[in-house]
Amino acid sequence: MPTAIARRGLMLVVSSPSGAGKSTLARRLLESDPLISMSVSVTTRPKRANEVDGKDYFFVSRERFEEMVREGAFLEHATVFGNRYGTPAAAVEKILAKGRDVLFDIDWQGAQQLAQKAKDDLVRVFILPPSRGELERRLNERAADPPEVVARRMAEANNEISRWSEYDYVIVNEDIPKAQKQLEAIVAAERLNRQRQIGLVDFVRRLIGA
Amino acid sequence: MPTAIARRGLMLVVSSPSGAGKSTLARRLLESDPLISMSVSVTTRPKRANEVDGKDYFFVSRERFEEMVREGAFLEHATVFGNRYGTPAAAVEKILAKGRDVLFDIDWQGAQQLAQKAKDDLVRVFILPPSRGELERRLNERAADPPEVVARRMAEANNEISRWSEYDYVIVNEDIPKAQKQLEAIVAAERLNRQRQIGLVDFVRRLIGA
Question: How far A49 CA lies from chain B's nearest CA (Å)?
């Protein structure tokens, strides 16, 4: 029977400029690793027909959201197109305490907020595109966009990329399977981090017969 | 052509009580990964017929060794059975600067000395046996040993094991191929550590067209 050391889960943050492959990598990781689940956010955005409350999002009123902000119930929260989004601390804690991991597909601002509240549980990975040519190609995919839209998108990408140094790990994604393996190695290694293996204290005690 | 980000090598320390499989894991890692080489120690021990100076050890006189100690030329040094052994800082630095990694098969005392001199380059992995029964079996393999020898060996193992909490990662080795994969994942992840990828600053500069 394999030796199971109890461990505390980790909060895996994956960020990147748009088009660098973050969503593909995140999806593949969720599919390949049953111990990782996506963080479910709380939002004030109206529920769409195909969405399930508690699965896609927790849908709440604006009043309830602001109340949760005041209660300190969020690890991070943000406003996007006038709608409020937040990561509920209690739901994440419940998963981590079970030794399961939570994946966050958020930007650098969300990552900064998480870092303030959950430093030790956090593993931050930044995905970079392989070259400027590839970045431009991805940003200009819709050829009909006027130059000012393209320029704004490029400025946004540059702004996002400039946050790379706030992350623990950086993956240059030139090949999805390779980048996926690298992301998996980061998860595997972080699970072996001594401080996350909270069962080691008891395990070693039995080992030395104390 | 793959994007090569210049990186600084890492100092991989693997420690364990005797019999936990450290040497097997270290050998397999050296065989499977051409970027990792073993640290070559300086010693005052007489050279054996099958040993090569500069490959197995750097063989020096006791006077020269003590001079190197005074010069601060060692990352760590120790005395074993009256012979002096030391890790030469300059040789290790040369390898790290090339973006290659160095493996150290040393005990917790050596690891403590390394930590004082090279904290940022260090990745410390501790290997534990899977159970007390297995540990006793390995320590008692030579059935003819008198009880006091067995007891001393057990006390030594307990002393070594009790240092587990000074390491960054802990692997419970119940299955060599599994433990080997875990060790490889740690190396792969640590190479993706932002601070070790020293070429990222220039890479990102080109990426954002600065």
Answer: 40
